[in-house]
Amino acid sequence: ARDGDTLLLRFAPAKGYYLYRDRTSLRLDGDARARGFALGTPRWPRAQAYRDEHFGDVRVYFDAVDVPVPVARRDGSA
């Protein structure tokens, strides 16, 4: 957790691999949703333009990237 309202996700692709920014999705399991948690829109940093043989023109990360994700909570207490 970055703070009480933000998760900080760190992705570190292995050498020779990359992470697709627009093909990555996040979700909470049913228990977290039932407890009143919801994810906001990830705050992706700028990605590198890349021509992928399967998906065409995409935005990717070749190196480690930190992605803050807002978390909405029904109950704001600790």
Walk me through what this model shows.
The chain is mainly beta. It is 6% helix and 40% strand. The chain has one helix at residues 30-34, and strands spanning 6-11, 19-20, 37-39, 48-52, 56-61, 65-73. The strands form two sheets. It has a three-stranded antiparallel beta sheet with strand order 1-6-3. Strand 4 (48-52) and strand 5 form a beta hairpin. The relative contact order is 0.36. The mean pLDDT is 90.
Percent of residues in β-strands? 35-45%
Q: First CA to last CA: what distance?
A: 13 Å
**Alpha-beta classification:** mainly beta
Largest sheet: 3 strands, antiparallel
Order of helices and strands: EEHEEEE
Q: Count of DSSP E strands? A: 6
Helix content: under 10%
User: What is the tally of helical segments?
Assistant: 1
Shape: elongated
